[in-house]
Amino acid sequence: MISYEIHLFRRKGDENIYKCKHYKILSLEILSLDVKYEFNSDNNRLYSGKDGTIILAEGEIDNF
Predict the structure, then answer these.
(1) From first to last of its 64 residues, what are the pLDDT tens digits of the chain?
(2) Within a domain: residue 20?
(3) 24 - beta bridge partners?
(4) Is 3 part of any domain?
């Protein structure tokens, strides 16, 4: 893995110019890990009320 420490070098007009201040190259082959279960979907499947989702409530918010 390569990690970078980036800092703001200067501003040029409305743009920021960043530079790398420090880096590390790491070997991950014996890194101990925790399991993180994730589910991957998209907005169409998640909010459509189809494909196994159940919409429990839906409505407009007044005075927003």
Answers:
(1) 898 899 999 999 999 999 988 899 989 888 888 887 777 778 777 777 777 677 777 788 776 5
(2) yes
(3) 3
(4) yes
In a domain, 40, yes or no: no
Structural domain harbouring 1: 1-27
Task: Take residue 41 and report the two structure tokens written for it.
Answer: 């979907």
CA–CA gap between residue 64 and residue 51 (Å, rounded): 31
The two tokens of residue 61 are 């918010």
Whole-number Å distance between alpha carbons of 24 and 6: 12
Among 40, 42, 47, 3, which Cα is nearest to 23's?
3
63 Cβ neighbours under 8 A, 6+ residues apart? none
Q: Does 10 fall in a domain?
A: yes
Question: Is the pTM here over 0.85, yes or no?
Answer: no
User: How far is it, in rounded angstroms, from Cα 45 to Cα 62?
Assistant: 27
